[in-house]
Amino acid sequence: MKAYWIAPGASGTTAELRDTPSPEPKAGELLVRVRATSLNRGELLGGKPGAAAKPGGGECAGEVVKAGEGVTSFAAGDRVMGRCAGGFAEQSVMDAREAMRVPPGLGWAEAAATPLVFLVVYDMLVAQGRLAAGQWLLVTGVSSGVGVAALQTGKALGARVIGTSGSADKLARLEKLGLDVGIRTRAADFHDAVMKATDGKGVSLVVNNVGGTVFAECVKSLAFEGRLAIVGHMDRTHTATLDLEALHGKRLTVFGVSNRFRTAGQRAETVRGFVREVLPFLADGRLKPVVDRVFPFADLPAAIAFMESDAQVGKIVVSV
């Protein structure tokens, strides 16, 4: 089969198309005929130039080709979406515990744009963030894939949403998705605008997509008993100073949402919660994944370059 291998380079991520043996599902796995896959910034960040190439693609949507030993919940022909190994390929393997059935109303591109961003958003907003109707949510880097999904999910939960972006055009586009307050900035200077929007109270939850350069400003923008979710580092800054007085005085919570050290069972638990509490929003149309652009499989390197240009609003999808 055809598959892309990716590697960090001096001027960005490189992708090489290779002829690769088709994978064979192990016990508990699904072999999936990939119809669409999508890009995630985390996969393209980090790594030293010259590092060995590896199969790319962390999520996909497609049809089950074969179910591994012990899998009874899915069968050949089922439409599924989820985290996978090597999604930038014609076929990929998916842990059956993390696979989800594609709702009838979602096309392949929308299905491929769903798993990782909406699962991490569920983790941030619901499982850990406890976001409630009427509360304020602040999303830095709101035009990113995770940012747009956080905006959409926050609105579906009844929250009011503030978003930051360096692009006035992107903020204007997101107003159509319900963005209540858009703050045009790429710097750590949004606290005053947040306080003005919230009548001086601050926000209940912050989703920090940007990284360490805005961490302190996020803490300042929190209300009493506010929560701060750390999910991205687009600024490539991994350290920041924490105001301990604000932390204990306002009874704040700071948490991360990376899956790097979680077990498959822990990830599966998040999937079950998402299927129970958020997937119905996608099934009935209250949530609709935002796909900025769909690239053909042969143009995956161009899709990567487009993501690295930071021009998108929402997800970038590759049709296989």
Question: Summed up, what is this model?
Answer:
With 320 residues, the protein is an alpha/beta fold. The protein has 2 domains: 2-114 and 290-319, Medium-chain alcohol dehydrogenases, catalytic domain (Quinone Oxidoreductase, Chain A, domain 1, Alpha-Beta Complex), CATH 3.90.180; 118-256, Medium-chain alcohol dehydrogenases, catalytic domain (Quinone Oxidoreductase, Chain A, domain 1, Alpha-Beta Complex).
CATH class of the largest domain: Alpha Beta
CATH superfamily of the largest domain: Medium-chain alcohol dehydrogenases, catalytic domain
The major beta sheet can be summarized as: 7 strands, mixed
- Under CATH, the topology of the largest domain can be stated as Quinone Oxidoreductase, Chain A, domain 1
- Shape assignment: globular
Oligomer: single chain
Quote the distance from N terminus to C terminus. 12 Å
- Please tally the β strands and state the result: 16
What pattern of helices and strands is seen along the backbone? Answer: EEEHEEEEEHHEHEHEHEHEHEHHEHE
Q: What structural class is derived from the secondary structure elements?
A: alpha/beta
Summed up, the domain count is: 2
- Percent of residues in β-strands: 25-35%
Give the low-pLDDT segments. Answer: none
Q: Which range best describes the helical content: under 10%, 10-25%, 25-40%, 40-55%, 55-70% or over 70%?
A: 25-40%
CATH architectural designation of the largest domain: Alpha-Beta Complex
Q: Would you tell me the overall average pLDDT? A: 95
